[in-house]
Please model this.
Amino acid sequence: MTSVTEFKLSPADRAVTGIRVRRGRLRLLPTAPVLVLGSVLVVMGLAAVGVAFIAWPLGIQLWFGAMGLLWVVTGWRSATARVTANGTTVRIRNHWRTRRVGWEDVACIASEQRHNRWGRLPYSSPWRGPKEFTVGTVTLMNGDVIVCDALASEPLGAGWASPKGQVVAEVKAAVLTRWQEHISTQGASSEASLHQRRQ
Model:
């Protein structure tokens, strides 16, 4: 694995929560309200599963059990959504799917405006707007585009969302782009030094 110990975050990067560099790895986490909501859903789900064991009619037990498990899974996946990058691969863990791709397969990283008719919990939902937000994407060499849930911002115009929310997604995407450039630069310099040694 390519060493990435020289990668440094700028003061502006450090001001954004959810960006960490540790042990040669870059971790990008979702916004704080998403982490809180995910944790609350896990607790509520566990409570619902516990209620299911109370001596009520079987139908109510099954309903509480099913809802509790759904809340636990949804909350856990939301709270643990992240992008983890090292010297060889980038691992994108979204709410429902995890993808691991090698840096050689990544064409570009960008941030763009998206519309989601389901909204973005906890900021908006299918029943109330807004539904436009900024999200980080990873485009592969084969043309596939992976949307990164951990690089999504609050929706535009959300009443209690942070005014710098749109910038957060852009900063995280920019940090991931710099990480990729850092990896490719280190790889090129390593190959050059190895070639010089052979000569």
Observations:
- The mean pLDDT is 81.
- The first helix runs from residue 11 to 14.
- The helical segments are 11-14, 32-52, 58-79, 165-198.
